[in-house]
Design a protein that fits this description.
2 copies of one chain form a homodimer.
Chain A (H helix, E strand, L loop, with lengths): L2 H11 L4 H11 L8 H13 L3 E6 L7 E6 L1 H12 L10 H7 L6 H28 L6 H30 L10
Antiparallel strand pairs in A: 1-2
Helix pairs in contact in A: 1-4, 2-3, 6-7
The first copy, chain A, binds a DNA duplex (30 and 30 nucleotides) through helix 3.
Organism (chains A, B): Celeribacter arenosi
Protein name (chains A, B): PadR family transcriptional regulator
Chain lengths: ~180, ~180
DNA sequence: ATATAATATAGGATGTGTCCTATATTATGG
DNA sequence: CCATAATATAGGACACATCCTATATTATAT
């Protein structure tokens, strides 16, 4: 998927180890892309096999050697090709909505609990992203503008989820104490 | 994941074949859960192995026999347990935001193209969901209320995406004709 | 004083889902 | 008249990702 290109994108900025990449991703794209450590290493060696990335081994005594990955021109080409390529359809999969869909089997109180938990989670996420967003200075480049935009996207969807859940919660009153699902 | 429970949820309403389930899902939860045909059949036979579902074979001459699946009491219990269980953390993965994040490598026009395509897609989705939403009568049960709520969720997020993309698009003007990424 | 986090890589097992294929007939659309 | 959609199931191959494990030392936190 896009992990491959995410790695290439980060390696454009500077050569990094798998470990560095994991941290860099967690700190920047973590809110819209979670990457497993094992997956990063596997994808990274795949990039090396494809000739898009080279490795410099830096010997270390106490820890495993640092394998510093550097992007090749072919890697940059692959990244640019991907950026301009048509958007692949994303499989949608929302376990929470699946629960909502069959929630009629639950007691109203249990549904309220589900929804308030959802609101709490989304509120926390929005707070976190907003805090990071506040720390950003006014964008002086297109790149910065776009990176901040990804934060705004998370905030917008988080807020949409909160608003939606509150509306559903309010509409639930009509079925309080009712057992006719 | 939740596919297992989605199948159980649908089988509560009436016994169905794998084929029926695929159609039922596409028509109702399709906007927040895409299910592959092969995956449905495999998951379904898994449910049979677990003893949560039984099968009646209806002989047919011209086509493969219909294997009608019926939920067992154990299946209903499993469904209810899942509905009340804590929410598993969902892995986030948004290829479009990954592209946005590294979009600084593209020309401003190319980014505009990405964003307008995104707006078009989201607009289409919102139209489709809104049309379905309009066809719904006023909910007379908790179940109906919640099912309609899943539609509203899709509409809300679609609209949030449209609003966000338009804002980003407007902010892009400042970098028109600039090459300093 | 002791535990755990940080540094750094990588393999095996497992799960979940997609894609493609096979099979066979009838109905519908252009 | 011909193609393809609908009906109905299911297996093989493969991709992508997660979880767990192993290894080894230092720094930090309780």
């Amino acid at each position: 998927m896009s992990l491959k290109f995410a790695l290439l994108g980060f390696l454009v900025e500077q050569p990094m180890t798998g470990y560095d990449l994991r941290k860099a991703m967690e700190a920047s794209v973590g809110h819209f892309w979670t990457a497993d450590q094992a997956q990063i290493y596997r994808t990274l060696s795949g990039l090396v096999d494809e000739g898009l990335v080279t490795v410099d081994v830096v010997e270390q005594e106490t820890r495993p050697n640092r394998r510093v990955h550097r992007i090749c021109p072919a890697g940059e080409d692959a990244l640019d090709a991907w950026l301009a390529s048509p958007l692949e359809p994303v499989p949608v999969r929302e376990p929470f909505l699946m629960r909502t869909f069959f929630g009629g089997r639950l007691k109203v109180e249990a549904i309220e609990h589900l929804l308030t938990a959802r609101i709490d989670e989304a509120t926390q996420l929005v707070s976190l992203l907003s805090a990071i967003r506040q720390q950003q200075s006014t964008p002086t480049s297109l790149s910065m503008h776009l990176r901040i935009a990804t934060l705004d996207n998370g905030i917008a969807h988080g807020q949409a989820e909160i608003d939606w859940a509150k509306t559903v919660l309010n509409g639930l009153g009509a079925w309080h104490g009712t057992d006719l699902t």
